[in-house]
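Let us work through a complete example step by step.
Step 1: write down the sequence.
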Amino acid sequence: MSAPMLRAPQRTSRTWSLAGVLILLAGWQIAAMYLGPLLMATPLQALRALGGMLKNDGFWYHAGQSLGRIAIGVGLGCSIGFVLGVLAGHYARLRGLLEPLRWLLMAIPPVVVVVLAMLWFGLGSPMVIFITVLMMAPGMYVNTVKGMLLVDRQLIEMAHVYRYGPWLRLRHLYLPALAAPLTAALLIATAGGVRLVVMAEVLGAESGAGYAIANARSTFDSGELYAWVILILLLVAMLEFTLLQPIQRRLTQWQDSTPAKAGRP
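Step 2: predict the structure and record it as tokens.
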């Protein structure tokens, strides 16, 4: 009796992804028709509002403010989490020292962090960036530590025998082992970072996409509000397809070159 053959994971179907988008748009249209224009704009109304926003100088100012905060906050948060994760994966004492702080940051609600940051920094970019870094770093740290602990001990000993320096060990040993958890953490951190920045701007900023959304909500301009939602979704999609997926392919290209092992009868 032959052993069952494991099928290789298939790439995501573009056709079915497009079908999923169409289903979401249909659901949005139905919900907007049911709730009325005051509570929810239709996709067409949001697109019309988006066309008007693109001609407004204020739109570009708010969009630039949010993009800068996202780049700095997510970049710093992921970098800090990755560096601390690599070090904690090497040193058990440091890992134990950071564990209570990691648990605290992952357990505290983001709204509480927003309130405290508003008291400490006031309104503006420092507050938004501080919140983003504080909320992004723990997730990247946890994924990096888990990946470091799963590296084969024999490979680590071999790297020491051949006197690989820290950079060679990171490039040829740890990065390939961290590829899967690292790319997943980057995707989660990027999407979560965009949400955090917008939330912080809604609650306590004087510029940015979240500030514009808060203004649209206060004036019951549902078309502009959902136009900003569309732009945020497009930003996350652009970051994933133009930045995160190429990074993922780069980090995991060694897996694609490995011959697949099929089951034998």
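Step 3: interpret the result. The radius of gyration is 23 Å.
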